[in-house]
Amino acid sequence: MNGSENEKIEQLQPYIVDDTGTKLTTNQGLKIADDENSLKAGVRGPTLLEDFHLREKITHFDHERIPERVVHARGYAAHGEFELYHSMKEFTKAGFLQEPGTKTPIFIRFSTVAGSKGSAETVRDVRGFAIKFYTQEGNFDLVGNNIPVFFIQDAIKFPDFVHAVKPEPHNEMPQASSAHDTLWDFVANNQETAHMIMWLMSDRAIPRSFRMMDGFGVHTFRFVNEEGIAKFIKFHYKPRLGAHSLIWDEAQMIAGHDPDFHRRDLWENIEHGNIVEYDLGVQMIDEKDEFMFDFDILDATKLWPEEQVPIRFFGKITLNRNVDNVFAETEQVAFHPGNVVPGIDFTNDPLLQGRLFSYLDTQLLRLGGPNFTEIPINRPVCPFHNNQRDGFSRQRINKGQVSYHKNSLANNTPSTSTWKEGGYVHYAEKVEGRVIQARSESFKDHFSQARLFWNSMSPVEKRHIRNAFKFEVGKVKSESVRQQVVDMFVNVDKALAKELAYAVGVKQPTGEQVDVSASSPALSLENTPKYPYTLKVGVLIGEGFSGKEVKDVVKSLLKEGVSVDIVGQHLGSLKDSDGVKVVVNQTLVTTNAALFDSLYIVGGKAGNQKQFDSNMIEFINTAYQQYKPIGVASTGMDIFSRSDAKPGAGILFGTNPNFSEDFVKAIAQQRFWDRDVYVT
Ligand code: HDE
């Protein structure tokens, strides 16, 4: 077994088919003699109904598509494992959280929310971060996002929210974007959205990579231990590479140059054997402390500040294997927050409660009936037995006479299990009250945490949020909606709302911001860890380079795990005068500066010098405007001096004796914000 094999991968093996080197047959196994021509009465005559091969092939093709997910349609997944490093036995009975060292196979699907299945990946949106743990006690699904709060508080509003954010129904525009009238009309008229909108306007909504974003279970769940003692919990997953983001112009350029940017990044890194890791942890609150906070812990528009409730990390998530077939695995995987194991339970969060219905329901339509749990990617790795029978595409062949409980003919089996035997027993929460359709008073503060988030941002992050608001609300055609948004966000920050009012041409707001001065440093991406590992450098190179210089620099980048693309005027290889050869794997027209974290400008000669120089200057200008580090080799000085980039922080020259070391540090830093390139 290599490192990426586990019980789930083994379970999938009998279903994996390799058609290479085989004979072409029908689905009945009949060998095919002709796959080029349908059966006709005469070479130019009518096609015959008798042609079963034609009919089977076309019919199957006609039925290849299934409905895309109503939300989170655009997604990408990989296999991996979860390894427990601290026992959580004290808090939960969950079998996979008992013994340190226990490994559990996992499957993670990342997604955007609003866009269709074929939409670009670097759009401004929340990212889904759904994990299926194939535990020995059944599948546990942690169906989270990369933002810790949500737009609404009660599930009954989800269809309204989704209708508002999706493309507008009369003209189906815009695709995969919240920058339009209906979303902002919804926001202003449903002010529980305020906190989440602050996150959506922030850099969190344009992650650099699936490998570099936080994950959150969002809802408050429960851990319950063997003795039946419960704690409220919130799940957190943190990437070991730190959480990093794109900047808006870059994200927009990437959406055009490589709409598959995020999946390509994940797929390539796993293919290259690079380490993709996150730590999994929980925040915990004792049952007795339920009402100790100035927010309601059942309200999914609120987070628990880490400074108040620290995260206890207990295990490591690793992704290490790409799927064999995206449809069979990534598309057919069916997540459901209701898939839990003993020791993990729900709370009365009204958003969570609605999800417990929705996910099962949606799979029935999407996967065509109740047997979707038998699809290989969805099967648990532990045995499963019950009296459910039949339905479309049933795979199991259940033997015997009995398919009911209780029975005597099969000795009352399959039989139930007690809590001690691993049976799922719902937490015996005490409930009382009147049946009522209402929102708790404790859910009504929509602005304090929105302001807490704003207070926690660095000046650069605040600038990005202001710009995002100006872009998004600036796209809204209705002046009344623009005014309502300005009047709403004055509650969060007066200066922000005033600037927005000016930018979107509406009256200055008259309200006041809420009186909250607290901040939570953990919310700022400024404080995230920074490493050079797996960041991508484009080496812009022509003929006549200094072989030794380039070789040494590239070697030191590779040593730190930096990924390098050699970008020339044409594909093939280039040689310097000492015979050092480099193989060009991208050209200045197949790629773009936005797709790199950093550039190394080697410069040199090319067949069409004028074009080579002007393409290189465009690359340098773009990287410079996007605040990226740029390394300049001795042969690159001339072209660099002809660009708009100016020497300063994050610009490193090969003539400096510590160049390689400093360049690697600058790559890890990723951005050098003090360049005077933007005013807005
Ligand atoms: Fe989902 N959500 N959701 N959601 N959600 C779906 O299930 C729904 C919510 C999330 O990669 C759907 O299989 C309701 C919060 C992820 O396959 C659907 C409500 C969070 C994914 C559905 C929410 C999420 C989904 C669409 C409000 C973060 C993708 C297809 C009550 C904690 C999973 C499907 C994947 C997918 C319903 C709110 C995360 C329709 C009704 C909050 C990551 O069932």
Automatic annotation (TrEMBL):
Organism superkingdom: Bacteria
InterPro entries named in the record: Catalase (IPR018028), Catalase_AS (IPR024708), Catalase_clade2 (IPR024712), Catalase_clade2_helical (IPR043156), Catalase_core (IPR011614), Catalase_haem_BS (IPR002226), Catalase_immune_responsive (IPR010582), Catalase_large_C (IPR041399)
EC number(s) given by UniProt: 1.11.1.6
Molecular function via GO: catalase activity
Secretion signal, residue range per the UniProt entry: none
Annotated keywords: Heme, Hydrogen peroxide, Iron, Metal-binding, Oxidoreductase, Peroxidase
SMART domains: Catalase
A Pfam family per the record: Catalase
Cofactor: heme
Catalytic activity: 2 H2O2 = O2 + 2 H2O
Enzyme class: oxidoreductase
UniProt cross-references to Gene3D superfamilies, sorted A to Z: 1.20.1370.20, 3.40.50.880, Catalase core domain (2.40.180.10)
Domain Catalase core stretches: 25-413
The protein's role, per its UniProt record: Decomposes hydrogen peroxide into water and oxygen; serves to protect cells from the toxic effects of hydrogen peroxide.
Family the entry assigns: Belongs to the catalase family. HPII subfamily.
Protein name: Catalase
Species of origin: Sporosarcina quadrami
Top-level taxonomy: Bacteria, Bacillati, Bacillota, Bacilli, Bacillales
